Amino acid sequence: MANKRQKNISLLIFTIVVLLSLILDLITKHYTVGINSEFIKNFIKFYYTENTGGAWSIFSNSTLFLTIFSATASILLIIFLYLSKNNSKSFHIAIGFIIGGALGNLFDRICFGYVRDFIKLEFINFPIFNLADSFLTVGIVLLCVYYFIELLKDLKKKKEIGD
Description:
Elements (H helix, E strand, L loop, with lengths): L1 H31 L3 E5 L3 E8 L11 H21 L5 H24 L2 E7 L9 H32 L1
Antiparallel strand pairs: 1-2, 2-3
Helix pairs in contact: 1-3, 2-3, 3-4
């Protein structure tokens, strides 16, 4: 019973992270359409652009492929999450950020045929991106950290058993 409750809490947290990241992404994209202004001098500029590709504009003009890929990957990840016996809140938060970011860009591809990007880092030569891209990145990093910590725990258990 406690396991089911913990799983439900983790799924609720996942849902909240998905919804908040999706809403924040869509709101910021809406209000930055056509904008070209400095946000923090010599650091971050809001510079609106339309990207028909993926990260770093790879697969430019491949909106249909990227839409199908993103939708399929999101659905499979959600199915995996619900079928998983993993009740970890950290795991669910990481997947929530990934799904939230993927859905934000998927929304753009379906509704506009491109992704609205607007965050330009002035201090480094880096592609223009949006909050959905940031949420995807944060989710992937969190997921890697989660699995790394789990790996360390497993190695520690194996070492204790071997001693």
